[in-house]
Write a sequence for this structure.
């Protein structure tokens, strides 16, 4: 298996990043959905948000690398049986997923740093606040974060449904290419 993409398929780096981001996005969504209902006396009340923030920061680094990697690699050509509208909608979906993931990460960062504090990433390093204290920023960023994460999950489900449509109905290699086969 090749490290870089080719005109006919994805390379190992693109595949690993794709599945790592997918797992992180759904994991963060599930953790976020669960942790908002924790009570103050729950053992996870402080631990879950710390994990959520730490993974979110690491995901940001991975996404910046992903955008750079995508910029220096060829994109595999669409399969010959793909219709024009399918290719265009796939490009639009990918673009929107990238934008929404960055919006979710930046808004999450702004929620956590609205009081001027930094974010500790698993105790390895700290990411400082770039805004300082801004009253009410966490509320606005919270609304953006909430809706952008729901949009990501909805769009990711549509994205997966498209991959399964190509695999099960069209019986083409779309899904296999992202699985390295």
């Amino acid at each position: 298996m090749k490290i870089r993409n080719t005109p006919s398929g994805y390379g190992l780096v693109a595949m690993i990043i794709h599945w790592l981001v997918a797992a992180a996005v759904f994991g963060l969504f599930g953790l976020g959905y669960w942790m908002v209902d924790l009570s103050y006396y729950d053992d996870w009340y402080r631990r879950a948000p710390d994990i959520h923030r730490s993974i979110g920061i690491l995901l940001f680094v991975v996404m910046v690398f992903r955008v750079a990697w995508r910029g220096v690699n060829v994109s595999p050509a669409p399969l010959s049986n793909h219709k024009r509208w399918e290719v265009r909608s796939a490009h639009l979906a990918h673009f929107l997923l990238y934008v929404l993931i960055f919006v979710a990460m930046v808004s999450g960062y702004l929620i956590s740093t609205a009081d001027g504090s930094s974010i500790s990433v698993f105790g390895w390093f700290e990411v400082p606040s770039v805004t300082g204290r801004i009253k009410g920023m966490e509320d606005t960023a919270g609304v953006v974060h909430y809706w952008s994460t729901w949009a990501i999950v909805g769009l990711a489900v549509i994205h997966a449904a498209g991959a399964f449509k190509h695999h099960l109905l069209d019986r083409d290699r779309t899904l296999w290419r992202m699985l390295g086969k």
